[in-house]
Please model this.
Amino acid sequence: MSIKIALAGNPNSGKTTLFNALTGSNQFVGNWPGVTVEKKEGKLKGHKDVTITDLPGIYSLSPYTLEEVVARNYLMQEKPDAILNIVDGTNIERNLYLTTQLLELGFPMVIAVNMMDVVKKNGDTIHIKQLAEKLGCTVMEISALKGTGIKEAAQAAVQAATQGGSPKYHSFSVQVEEALSTISARLSQGVEEKQKRFHAIKLFERDKKILEGKVSASAFEDIISKIETEFDDDSESIITNERYIYIGEIIKGCYKKHNKGNLSLS
Ligand code: BGO
Model:
């Protein structure tokens, strides 16, 4: 059985270091179809049947940069068996912005919190178990540079891929959730059930590249503008704000900065 694992993370999160450590010289380099963004794939060391695809480094799954579009098209079209999301532990709040969006795609996912050598050296604490409970998926601590925890993280991703299932995702406010359900219900059978939520969020954000040509831009305008009037804000900002509030809550319970002596949001 062949297994496809997508490696996703922010630029500078240590993705290349992890990819190289996991695949060694077993890599193939090319370009993503139609664009000059480099595509790297490799076999997981000791697992001929496991292919790791290194996605471009991105901060979000929005449609604004070529890298974001390449990454999300791959995820939606190729449908990996699992995502290995590398997160920079020294910059965890910012990195979780992408993580929350990846979870909404509905694929099995493992989070590898990287740079743990630096986090520990700084005397900071990340409560990995609580983070896993809050995010509803496996979270492992690693140092890609030192090679610690990486085999275990890869093994966890292989296990998640084999087991299947969807991770949990966070709920937005009641009004937004209602709008997402309505949009979701109106999506055709062309969209796989577990990917409906991601599509509904993107359509709510007026993402023009999602379902391009299949859904008219104005199809959900009535639902979206009703919420915008209620919140006095545009739909994309509503989603972004609610996402950051959720991430702030996670950080409060799971991250402690040494020199602050109290729980930190930064
Ligand atoms: C430089 N721990 C530590 N301490 N550093 C790490 C870890 C880790 O676990 N993982 C990665 N790094 P990329 P993207 C560098 O290149 O893999 C470091 O963009 C330097 N370079 O070594 O490239 C890694 O693919 C000069 O650092 O990330 C790299 O996601 C001085 O994080 C950087 C200091 O890793 C980004 C660091 C000339």
